[in-house]
From TrEMBL:
Protein name from the UniProt record: Trm112p-like protein
Domain of life: Archaea
Gene3D superfamilies, alphabetized: 2.20.25.10
Organism of origin: Candidatus Methanoperedens nitratireducens
A Pfam family it matches: Trm112p
NCBIfam families with a match to the protein in the record: Trm112_arch
C-alpha cells in the first residue's frame, strides 16, 4: 500500500479517520501493518501491501 493512499482512505463502517501503524515497509510501499479507526474501535489489516477494508464479519 502506498502512503499516499492514506489521503483518501476512511473507515468503511463509520467513515472516520484511520490511523496507520506500519510493521513492515520497503522503499516503495507499506507491506504489513494495520489501519485503526478510533471512532468505531476497529482494526483493518494490511497484508502483502493490500489493506483489507472489509467489515470484520466478512473477513476470512
Amino acid at each position: 500500500m502506498k502512503r499516499d493512499l492514506m489521503d483518501i482512505l476512511c473507515c468503511p463502517m463509520c467513515k472516520g479517520d484511520l490511523v496507520l501503524e506500519v510493521t513492515e515497509e520497503n522503499e516503495k510501499e507499506i507491506v504489513k501493518g494495520t489501519l485503526y479507526c478510533g471512532k468505531c474501535k476497529e482494526y483493518y489489516p494490511i497484508d502483502d501491501g493490500i489493506p483489507n477494508m472489509l467489515p470484520p464479519e466478512l473477513r476470512e
